[in-house]
């Protein structure tokens, strides 16, 4: 199997791609490190599959450059790229046994018969399906088919592993199990891997780094925590979790940055880059707001906003309140403990915000 | 209680009536043919002697191997035409794909025998092509000599059966199946051989076995090309020259039926448990590849060549119908519309007979088809599946065999009033056509019925309509698109049927178009009028097909809201 030392990176430079006259990928630039597990995350139709397929050599020919290691593969046909792709539908050939499916790539590479036998056995062993070698794909469960598809791809020791929504056809329990298995396999083989998903939880749990895509444009690249805590725009902020987004301006008052919304809501912010900016957005995650009855005095670095509860949702581990303050409705999460009475609709409450938890998005 | 009882007796009565009809006009004649084949010609005892005689006679041996050879080679040649066309149109982007797919109706609107003589004039020993080749290069190609001619004519007409089935199969393959193979290093011919073709195999086998069956059973083409040392022509010639007591015709019939069944069985086997159609579950859509310049040139060259060949019988027939004398020359000496005048003044009976026979047969077919479909899919009658099986079994019965069976079974049966044997009354031709084309109409009706939600019927019944009223007021109107399609398919194919007809026509005045074409084409002087009659047949069938397309398209748009409601309930 591939060894970590041989892992190569993937570089994409100013990639544009269109189907007919519809531009689907716009100005994509990325560098994926050798051995990294990198994820394309975005809503359906954002161009994730198209980008992944462009790396594998499928779809319309793009403008720009795709490098695997140091090789420019932009104009190579799929069969000369040595990247391994696992398809969403698994695409196991129904007229071949599991063993012949897995052997296919090695046969195309004209490997000696003995070597093919050994390597196929090892690959099937790795995914725990050696005893199923002589079955047909139709005689396997979804999870097993997924493993065969993986084995078929890694047996040829591709330079990069591409996975297009590999878990989307599995039921919820199996999805978690396969997710761990894929991660384990990827770490064991130190194989540079690109994973496509529309599910942020899946992306967060598995990825070293994530590129968030929307409408064919990369919105942000970063580690899962970076994207969650420091999104660079409203789209990323929303896509990675629930966010309160407040429009306003950033002012400088007495050497301090102060965020001010139209209705007068204002609070100082820490670590906001650059001086005064008109038209920006403050993002606050619901769990960063504290909710309490009555009125609390303002303390250093802690802002108090008073309002009324408009709506309440019980989510299990937390209770989510919609609180009206001035012109804004803010979502607040409070951890739920048994026996603790919740606030009712209409209750007057005060929201506390630690000012360093607010993040200013400048677009 | 009463309503329930009535609801059951109606369908049962209909089922029994249809069963009897199929028994008398399909099962009994065929069983009779098989029985006679195993009967000693003099003693009447059961014996294999007829088969032994058959295989001891060198002419029959030769005919048997010729028929087999022609059928196999036709499948091979048809595949050579269909494979590239199917692959190019389903995998690459280029204009003309629709034109190529439209070829699918060619075997329906014109049977091979109609164009056979024209093909002789274009590609025969002294045909246009060979005259030119001889002039330019001093060589000739025996394209139409003997069996070659039959193979060429049959392949050109029947390859669309493979094209259509194969294209459907290729379109049903999840594109990821091929992409994953490319991703693992396969491309070009290897990709096609190892992945694409095996996945499309069931569709290919279905088409190929249909071609085999059609060619093996075909009577008209070899007769018109004057190739008599094949099975179907031998059966016909024995019966028409020696008489209906000669056992060889029956032996040949049994062999024809056996091979037809074999072909159908092969295709059923190929399709069983191999539903490879893999619905796309995500990823890119049907990504057809653009061709590079030279690839495009190559593709177009192949396609133009095949199209020219496929359309040559039609061109040839058209020229022949307008030419004065066409012999030993590239094109006719001069042009005239005399042939058409002659056909319309002296032979209009052929045309009216055809419209009458094919119209009646198609009407019978859709009535039977609708009734059988309803009984099989909407009732719980015991043994109802057998109606479907027996009606579809007509596919495996060659026209010659049915013709012989009718002659044998109904010759002794005198129709009262007109005082004539049923076997030589024109009505028997209508019945033969109806039985032979019933499978087409039945499949169309079944497809139409399956699209009518049972809930729509239940709604009518809950509002107080009886079973019979529900069928008349709800089911049949909703099925009408499919019924029209079934009618036209039956009509169009019955209008040009020759093999059963040729055995059953007992008087010139009872003869339909196909028989007239055959009669004319027998003599050199009759070729012009024969071709004109052929063009008339093509036009009739073409108009029928076009009209049905229009009606079906209109019906579909009318039905759309009802369908949406049915689905939404
Ligand atoms: N073969 C195609 N032809 C035309 N448009 C396509 C094709 N494949 C994808 N698209 C379009 O490209 C966009 C991105 O699609 P895709 O990459 O599949 O999105 P994702 O995988 O992120 O859901 C979509 O708007 C889709 O409609
Ligand atoms: Mg996708």
Would you give an account of this structure?
The complex is a heterodimer of chains A (363) and B (569). Chain A is of the alpha+beta class and 363 residues long. Helix content of chain A is 23%, strand content 36%. In chain A, the strands form four sheets. A six-stranded mixed beta sheet of chain A has the order 6-7-8-3-9-10, with helices on both faces. In chain A, strand 11 (244-253) and strand 12 form a beta hairpin. The radius of gyration of chain A is 25 Å and the shape is elongated. By secondary structure, chain B is mainly alpha-helical. Chain B is built from 24 helices and four strands. Chain B has helices at residues 2-37, 49-56, 58-91, 97-102, 106-109, 112-123, 128-137, 147-171, 175-183, 188-217, 220-224, 231-242, 247-271, 293-322, 338-346, 348-378, 385-393, 399-410, 426-450, 454-462, 467-495, 499-504, 513-521, 527-568, and strands at 92-93, 289-290, 414-415, 420-421. The two termini of chain B are 29 Å apart. Residues 1-7, 277-285 and 560-569 of chain B have low confidence and may be disordered. At the A-B interface, helix 1, strand 6, helix 2 and helix 4 of A face helix 9 and helix 10 of B. The structure holds adenosine-5'-diphosphate (ADP) and magnesium ion (MG).
């Amino acid at each position: 199997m591939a060894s970590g030392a041989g892992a190569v990176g993937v570089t994409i430079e100013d990639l544009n791609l269109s189907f007919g006259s519809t531009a689907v990928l716009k100005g994509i630039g990325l560098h994926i490190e050798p051995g990294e597990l990198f994820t394309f995350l975005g809503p359906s139709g954002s161009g994730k599959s198209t980008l992944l397929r462009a790396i594998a050599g499928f779809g319309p020919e793009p403008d720009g450059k795709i490098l695997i290691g140091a090789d420019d593969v932009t104009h190579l046909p799929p069969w000369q790229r040595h990247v391994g792709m696992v398809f969403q539908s698994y695409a196991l050939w129904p007229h071949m046994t599991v063993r012949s499916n897995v052997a296919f790539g090695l046969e195309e590479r004209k490997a000696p018969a003995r070597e093919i036998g050994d390597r196929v056995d090892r690959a099937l062993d790795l995914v725990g399906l050696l005893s199923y070698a002589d079955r047909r794909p139709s005689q396997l469960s979804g999870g097993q088919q997924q493993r065969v598809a993986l084995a078929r791809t890694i047996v040829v020791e591709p330079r990069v592993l591409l996975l297009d929504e590999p878990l989307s056809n599995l039921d919820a329990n199996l999805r978690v199990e396969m997710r761990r298995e894929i991660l384990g396999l990827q770490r064991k083989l130190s194989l540079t891997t690109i994973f496509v998903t529309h599910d942020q939880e899946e992306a967060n749990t598995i990825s070293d780094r994530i590129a968030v895509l929307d409408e064919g444009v990369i919105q942000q690249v970063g580690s899962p925590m970076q994207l969650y805590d420091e999104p660079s725009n409203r789209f990323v902020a929303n896509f990675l979790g629930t966010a309160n987004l407040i429009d306003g301006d950033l002012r400088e008052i007495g050497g301090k940055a102060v965020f001010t919304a139209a209705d007068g809501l204002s609070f100082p912010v820490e670590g906001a880059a650059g001086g005064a900016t008109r038209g920006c957005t403050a993002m606050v995650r619901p769990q960063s707001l504290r909710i309490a009855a009555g009125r609390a005095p303002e303390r250093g670095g802690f802002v108090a906003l008073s309002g009324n509860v408009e709506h309440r949702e019980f989510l299990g581990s937390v209770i989510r309140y919609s609180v009206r303050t001035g012109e804004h409705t803010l979502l607040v999460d409070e951890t739920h403990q048994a026996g603790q009475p919740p606030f009712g609709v209409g209750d007057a409450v005060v929201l506390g915000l630690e000012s360093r938890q607010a993040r200013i998005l400048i677009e | 209680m009463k309503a329930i009882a009535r609801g059951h007796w109606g369908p049962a009565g209909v089922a029994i009536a249809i069963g009897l009809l199929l028994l008398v006009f399909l099962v009994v004649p065929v069983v009779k043919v098989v029985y006679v084949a195993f009967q000693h010609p003099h003693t009447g005892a059961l014996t294999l002697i007829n088969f032994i005689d058959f295989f001891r006679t060198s002419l029959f041996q030769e005919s048997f191997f010729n028929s087999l050879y022609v059928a196999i080679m036709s499948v091979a040649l048809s595949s050579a035409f269909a494979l590239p066309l199917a692959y190019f149109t389903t995998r690459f982007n280029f204009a003309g794909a629709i034109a190529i797919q439209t070829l699918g109706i060619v075997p329906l609107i014109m049977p091979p025998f109609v164009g056979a003589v024209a093909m002789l004039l274009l590609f025969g020993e002294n045909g246009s092509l060979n005259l030119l080749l001889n002039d330019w290069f001093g060589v000739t190609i025996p394209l139409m000599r003997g069996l070659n001619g039959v193979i060429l004519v049959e392949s050109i007409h029947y390859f669309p059966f493979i094209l259509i089935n194969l294209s459907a199969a290729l379109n049903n393959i999840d594109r990821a199946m091929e992409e994953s193979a490319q991703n693992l290093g396969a491309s070009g011919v290897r990709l096609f051989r190892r992945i694409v073709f095996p996945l499309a195999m069931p569709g290919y086998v279905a088409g190929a076995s249909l071609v085999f069956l059609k060619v093996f059973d075909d009577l008209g083409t070899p007769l018109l090309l004057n190739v008599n040392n094949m099975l179907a022509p031998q059966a016909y010639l024995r019966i028409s020259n020696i008489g209906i007591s000669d056992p060889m015709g029956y032996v040949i019939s049994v062999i024809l039926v056996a091979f037809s069944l074999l072909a159908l069985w092969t295709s059923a086997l190929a399709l069983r448990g191999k539903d490879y159609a893999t619905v796309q579950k995500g990823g890119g859509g049907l990504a057809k590849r653009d061709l590079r310049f030279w690839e495009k040139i190559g593709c177009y060259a192949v396609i133009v060549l095949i199209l020219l060949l496929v359309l040559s019988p039609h061109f040839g027939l058209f020229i022949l119908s307008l030419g004065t004398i066409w012999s030993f020359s590239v094109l006719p000496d001069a042009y005239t519309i005399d042939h058409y005048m002659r056909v319309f003044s002296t032979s209009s009976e052929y045309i009216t007979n055809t419209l009458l026979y094919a119209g009646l047969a198609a009407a019978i077919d859709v009535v039977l088809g609708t009734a059988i479909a309803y009984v099989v899919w909407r009732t719980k009658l015991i043994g109802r599946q057998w109606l479907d099986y027996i009606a579809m079994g007509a596919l495996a019965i060659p026209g010659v065999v049915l013709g012989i069976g009718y002659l044998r079974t109904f010759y002794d049966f005198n129709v009262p009033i007109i005082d004539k044997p049923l076997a030589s009354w024109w009505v028997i031709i209508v019945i033969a056509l109806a039985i032979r084309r019933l499978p087409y109409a039945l499949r169309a009706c079944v497809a139409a019925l399956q699209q009518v939600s049972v809930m729509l019927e239940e709604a009518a019944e809950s509002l107080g309509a009886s079973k019979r009223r529900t069928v008349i007021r709800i089911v049949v109107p909703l099925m009408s698109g499919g019924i029209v399609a079934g009618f036209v398919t039956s009509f169009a194919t019955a209008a040009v049927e020759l093999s059963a007809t040729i055995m059953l026509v007992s008087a010139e005045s009872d003869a339909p178009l196909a028989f007239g074409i055959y009669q004319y084409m027998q003599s050199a002087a009759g070729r012009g009028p024969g071709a004109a009659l052929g063009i008339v047949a093509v036009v009739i069938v073409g108009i029928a097909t076009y009209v049905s397309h229009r009606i079906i398209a209109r019906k579909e748009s009318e039905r759309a809201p009802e369908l949406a409601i049915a689905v939404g309930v």
